[in-house]
Amino acid sequence: MKQKPWFKFFLLYLGGVTISLSQLKIVPILTTINRNFHLSLSASAWLMSIFTFSAVFLALPGGSIIDKLGPKKLLLGLFGCLILGNFLGIIAHNYFWLLFSRFIEGIPFALIIMVGIVLINKWFPETGSGLATGIWGTFSAAGSLIAMNIFQPLAQKGGLKAPWIFTLCLALLLLILYAYFIESDSTNIQAKQKISFHQQLQPLLKNTRIWTLALAQGAMAFVLYAFITIYPLLFTSFYHLANSQANFLASLFGLFGVPFGLLAGYLMDKFPHHGPVITLTAFILMTLSCLPMLNLQGFASYVLQVFCLSATIMMASSCVMVLVPKTVNSNQLVGYAVSFVNFLYYIGIIIGTPIVTKMIEISWLTACLLLGGVCLLGTISIFIFIILTKRKELNS
């Protein structure tokens, strides 16, 4: 199978989609969950938030974990957690057991991005890594699109626990396929264990280019997850659309981004020396797409704004993840670099929604200016990355 990297990547991508399905399966059936478990809206919101908390706790140690176990063992472990979490969800009969099961499911969510980037750079050492990384960045959007269409009818036909059973079976199948088709790590794991987590992380903390990419990715995540939450509210509360129209527009946000992850990867592969400029362009366009959110005129303009913001956010995110492995001096540090960038990514997810919703309570204009400012912060971070990269090239 060493000569079939795209087949292995296809299996990996299915794994990412499955983890996304596991994360989002409760969203279409949240009303039913609330009714069956007698939950308030704030209590049920924790069933989603607990995923992100798992990610924050595990993001930084992720590089050390993959360094010690190797990507295959960690991938198998993540899907073992996914299976366990969904099994606990099936047998959960009260809120706290269900919440605990969601925490276990969140462990794969915390580490799968990093594992994917490490494996992609292993399978595509010379060409194709940019395209593969771009495609890899779309698994969450693909999972969202599928989840919103299959889990509600599945629960209606098979009962409330049917989405958990479906996800468990899919995860079990992938665990078997990974064990058979993905090769074990060939490096000397014992030698790696002699180097401490602090020793590995120290050069990254001194790498200002990694910091700029991490800040840019955190800014992107802040804006992305804020809009995921506020889009229905924007279209109902500010533009006074019907709920059905608002939900339709919000659903387009995930759909539109998928092809642009591929486009970003293709461009980064096709023009490797212009990767930072392509990334900067994506962040500039993301900022320009965000700012007109309160000045739209008519349904066509609503769709256009959702399209532009979705496309540019996906391109910005994918471009950053292509650049991250190129900012370290050895393959062994790739996992640590991705972990560090993901740490700020998850921080952006956590703080984005509550801060923006608080700003909306002040005014929509305040929220809009905040989101535009965060986009601008990401843009400035990439601009600084370009300056530092040019300086490094001149000194080498």
From TrEMBL:
Keyword DNA-binding: no
Subcellular location: Cell membrane
Domain Major facilitator superfamily (MFS) profile, residue spans: 8-390
Record membrane topology: Multi-pass membrane protein
Keyword Chaperone: no
Pfam families noted in UniProt: MFS_1
Transmembrane segments: 40-62, 74-97, 103-124, 131-151, 163-182, 210-234, 246-265, 277-296, 302-324, 336-356, 362-388
Gene3D superfamilies recorded: MFS general substrate transporter like domains (1.20.1250.20)
Superkingdom as given in the UniProt entry: Bacteria
Sorted UniProt keywords: Cell membrane, Membrane, Transmembrane, Transmembrane helix, Transport
GO cellular component: plasma membrane
GO molecular function: transmembrane transporter activity
InterPro entries assigned to the protein according to its UniProt record, in alphabetical order: MFS, MFS_dom, MFS_Efflux_Transporters, MFS_trans_sf
Name the UniProt record assigns to this protein: Major facilitator family transporter
